[in-house]
Amino acid sequence: MRKSSGFTLIELLIAVSLAAIVILGIYSAFQSGTSSYEKINASIDASERARLVFARLEADLRNSFIYSAQEARFSGKATSLDFCSAQNDIARRVIYNFNNSSLTRAVYGGISGFKTPPEGAAESISWLIKGITLEFANANTYANDEWLPSWPPEAASGAAAPAAQILPAAIRVKLSIRQEVFTKIIALPLGEKRQ
Hints:
The protein is α+β, with helices and mostly antiparallel strands. It has helices at 9-62, 110-115, 139-143; strands at 75-77, 80-87, 90-99, 102-109, 123-127, 129-137, 170-177, 180-187.
């Protein structure tokens, strides 16, 4: 009998199978870690975008004021806002508009800016937004957690309600970025007095 000095076929197959199982386990763990890393980064990016949008909106809205005793010059719909705001002690007209996954902000100064703003002066403050919803509350609806789809609210006859002369008490902003929805309620200091 000769002494064999190598591995048998069965031993070789067992070794290759064990190595394949170990390599597949390592690959699976690596793939899972990479996938988790990408999801976390996407979530952080969405949160950061939402935080920046909310900070800009809140700064402008907290400085909003009533234009005159006859009109507040504040109008809002589900995807847009138009109002007066004080910036660096200067009265400005601020317009936010959401269109085609981009939220734009335009700021106009001077008398002409309050009447008819010039075209093309809007800057994009965030992109890759899936949607934005703005809802408005007066003192009564805010206390009851009811939100209005636009401001000023319409009177029963269809004419502008006396609310056209005041600011809303609060604005609820729902911002959709990627698969996440962020919500923030911004109270206006010069808005209606809460009861």
